[in-house]
Specification:
The chain has 287 residues and is an alpha/beta fold. It is built from ten helices and eleven strands. The N and C termini lie far apart (43 Å). The structure holds fe (ii) ion.
Length: 287
Amino acid sequence: MINVLDLGDFAQPVLVCGGAYGNLEALEALQRWADLHGFSDDRIIHTGDAAAYCADAAGASAFIRERGWPSIKGNVEEQLAAGADNCACGFDEASVCNAMSQRWYAYADAKICAEDRIWMASLPSQLAFTMAGRRFLVVHGAVDQTNRFMFESLQHAGFATQLTVAGSDAVIAGHTGIPFTRRLGDQVWHNSGALGLPANDGTRRVWFSTVAPHGDGIRFCHHALVYDHATAANKLRAANLPAGYADALETGLWPSPDILPGTEQRAAGVALNCEDHLWPSELEKAV
Ligand SMILES: [Fe+2]
């Protein structure tokens, strides 16, 4: 059952992150950035999957839980809260991801504490808020399915269908791990990327975003974060988790491109340069 928590209206910017994936070093770096730029805990949104590929499943879960960041269930929280035996990430059964997920999911399941599991079960499926007169819905994968992958290269109709179901002006999502902002007519689909794993762009950077009032509109900014990836990778290896993810933290390349659509596969190793998006754009305002 989908339940939506309404956060009300934001007059100030919000920070959006998702897919912490058990990467405590990335979370700590994000906290330093948030402190430096004046983002209080009530304006830091996490789009789910606090635990996954990296070694600090419990540490990352507690980090978000203790700060009370507005958060939703990703597929990982759904499964851990339910005591399920798999991550339900939505990977093809034959994919590399699927095989490796059995190890990191069992590890996360063993590491998190009862308090983490209770917190995960308590999280809403989705969040709603307004900003500058626009209605936002925060989801994990898609509006109608937690683990649906909504990559940027998906055809317009796929996004349009989801935005219709959302009944909002904009959707903020996660799950895919690669940041983008896409305009669809008068509406927007925004993905902050993943905090816990690089974006398969050949750099070690991880991603988050800010969503801010801008005049009578909204400014979406994607931010790349450099953090102590070496410690995170060393912990991953020490925990005997799949080495492909430790390598990914160091090379910026995923061990599992087979889950990506062709467009995203061809972009592997090309350093991302995500531009800010104004909504409406300056051109639209001038008309
Ligand atoms: Fe996910």
